[in-house]
Design brief:
single chain, mainly alpha, 2 domains, 10 helices, elongated
């Protein structure tokens, strides 16, 4: 806890405070169920008050989603992506490397669940990729939602039940399924 307090109080800037709050949440999620973690306990670990927490985040769900967004976007920004599968590979590797945290995150239910958040992020990534390649038009929204929902469901099941399967092996299984479905669809 001392590290978290020092990190937040030494620099005092907004990003440092957010990172301290993120570390506090991650630390607490190692031993405490998400639903039992309070804003007060997160802020207290950083020697902040609840009002300071709310200056940076709407609630603890917002903090959890910020952790994913900032950590994953940092990885994406620092990696050259040459193929469409590279982005999904980065995502699977990131989640696998942090599987203890994200196993708990996927178990959170409700309106602001992590599952809903990551599904929206994957939809955005697929839409952005399709737009970049000139393949996107509004009629493909159903396809994007279908693929995003399926991919997130598969990731969740993988992390919660088959985490001994490496990210590369998991993606190979996904590619195989997609190839077979596409082949059967176009050959019928």
């Amino acid at each position: 806890m001392l590290i978290i307090r020092k990190a937040v109080t030494n620099l005092g800037d907004s990003l440092t405070t957010k990172k301290g709050l993120a570390l506090a949440l991650k630390t607490q999620m190692q031993t405490t169920a998400f639903r039992k973690i309070s804003i007060e306990s997160i802020a207290k670990m950083c020697q902040l008050n609840r009002k300071s927490f709310y200056y940076h985040f709407k609630d603890k769900y917002d903090l959890l989603n910020w952790i994913f967004d900032t950590e994953f976007s940092t990885i994406v920004e620092n990696t050259t992506i040459s193929q469409r599968w590279d982005l999904l590979s980065l995502l699977c590797n990131y989640l696998y490397d942090n599987k203890s945290f994200y196993r708990k995150a996927f178990k959170i239910e409700g309106q602001n669940s992590f599952r809903s958040h990551i599904t929206e992020r994957i939809k955005e990534l697929i839409t952005k990729d399709m737009t970049h390649c000139g393949e996107y038009d509004k009629s493909k929204d159903f396809q994007i939602e279908f693929i995003s929902d399926g991919f997130v469901c598969a990731i969740e099941r993988w992390l919660l039940t088959n985490a001994d399967l490496t990210p590369n092996d998991f993606l190979e299984k996904i590619k195989e399924v997609i190839s077979k479905v596409a082949e059967n669809y176009y050959n019928s």
